[in-house]
């Protein structure tokens, strides 16, 4: 028996908020963060003065004290930041939830505010003339962007398992179809066909434009509190059932290809510890919100989290499993590929809407969800349930 | 955005010897002086026995392509000017399990690129070459070996 009762179902997501999503928004990241957090607390029906815990990304540019003094929070008792960009949102939520479950704090806010629509905000574009960290082993060779590192993995995956670009396309196509049904999605009015996918320009062969996340502006906030508190709140709670972060020994920021099994990645470490704590296994998950800055990450994560076997995810996706009406709908708001790119925070808010029964592309009877973060970085995941 | 190819810092005590050897036309892989564990990229400590007495072994300079990509714009200006270039992950023949990132280049070491991506495949043989990018940086790159082995003959002359 494992000792998981101190955490399991002890906390809940009780509020979500977001700004408009757009290629370019006029407000600053701080203004956007304030809007999203205010909306999330309104959604929860919790007074900002009750907030005493914060969680965010190390890459977040809006500091905790600015957030606290703008929103009029109470005295804070816990604030943590999680590293590794796309791998961070579930860790940020999970750490705040742990603080609340242990009685260190009572009400937590997790947020991500980002203006990425401007091409100059691309992180790889800010590389310096001399590199002193692990990037020195790849970037001087022209393997300079995250997409290049994922492209290398996808090509090897195709070689190992006979996967095709047509199969990979099913990820972008399924998510675009979801976005077409989501009035908040950037790509709500832009359908995608297989031929438009195959004709799109290459960004890092074999990955084309539509295998890449959007470049967009926006902010999202999430409110967490104790499950025992939720009776007097406005919204039906979404319980945080299980949580883990994960990092394999050989991992670098965006790559695990120096490790013995590059495809297991940090998701393998997260998944094993997540399912160990969970009463709900992969077979009982109704839908999944899987980090998708690049479409191959969805395939790799489907395997690492146990939804299909090694080498089977491309056929699983191509068979329609992840699309509307499939056996495991994935990224039902359109995700990072077609709704908005906010380092995966929108995957969490969509999970909450689905479990409340109020999603634009509602999955019938949705009661359980996996939310994952970036397969190619140190990462984390949550099991959420009604 | 920088106009030049980003270069490695070469005076870090952990990997200074690696970059020095590159200037001499040799590719090194780090080897633990106590337990013999081999690793790349170099580190400060051996994760097997926690030794900090880390030495080096020289690669013979042949390997096979584990995977590769062909980056396209948007790219840093220096790389945009090289399109189409190929970046490979190579498994050196004499160090199974080690994977090294390298650009493809001609055997003459005239620069990154100049290789037709259509001729490249996973499992294809490559030979070590160096591209000089600064007084302290000779970047270890890889030249594809043609099916008739012609490049190998050239390299041995
Ligand atoms: Zn050792």
TrEMBL record, chain A:
Protein name: Lipid-transfer protein
Domain Thiolase C-terminal: 268-373
CDD domains reported for this sequence: SCP-x_thiolase
InterPro entries given in the database record: Thiolase, Thiolase-like, Thiolase_C_2
Native organism: Parasphingopyxis marina
Single GO molecular function: acetyl-CoA C-acyltransferase activity
NCBIfam families, alphabetized: PRK07855.1
Automatic annotation (TrEMBL), chain B:
SUPFAM superfamilies linked to this entry: Nucleic acid-binding proteins (SSF50249)
Entries under InterPro entries matching the protein: ChsH2_C, ChsH2_Znr, NA-bd_OB-fold, Thioester_dehydratase-like
Domain (ChsH2 C-terminal OB-fold): residue spans on this chain: 56-131
Domain ChsH2 rubredoxin-like zinc ribbon per the UniProt entry, residue ranges: 19-51
Domain of life the protein comes from: Bacteria
Protein name: OB-fold domain-containing protein
Organism: Parasphingopyxis marina
Lineage per the UniProt record: Bacteria, Pseudomonadati, Pseudomonadota, Alphaproteobacteria, Sphingomonadales
